[in-house]
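Deliverable D5.2: sample structural annotation.
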Amino acid sequence: MTELQLQAEIFQYTWNCYPSTRRKFFHVSNELPTDVDYVLSHVERHVGTARWFVILRDSIRKRIQMFLSRRKASGVVAGIPDMILVHHGRCYGFELKTETGTVSQAQNEVHQVWKEDGTPVYLIRSLEEYIAVIETILGKAERSAA
């Protein structure tokens, strides 16, 4: 299962089983990379050495840089947990990973800052693990998953 599939499964479970959390449990779209060369290398991988790309490479680099700078300036912060729950005046972070996925340095740093502030962050690798955690926060499901 991919991280995105796990995220969808967890979101749907929460939406269906805990209707009181609707619009209080969400994903912050924060996945875009911040390194221009990283983005450019992925574009190159898909277009190869197409003549138009070689000619426009510097222009494309500048546009990518502008786009990434705007995102960063608008509040995109590397390492923010994948899912966030706001419940009874508290905030909870959920970092979702596959069975073999690792937490990045930026994620570790954000998690540490949040924990020092009293905001729990949970590392979740399966729906079952999530259910066990969410039940400690919200109690038993309000509705059945079926």
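Annotation notes: The CA atoms of residues 12 and 145 lie 9 Å apart. DSSP finds five helices and four strands in the chain.
The annotation will be released with the project's public dataset once the embargo ends.
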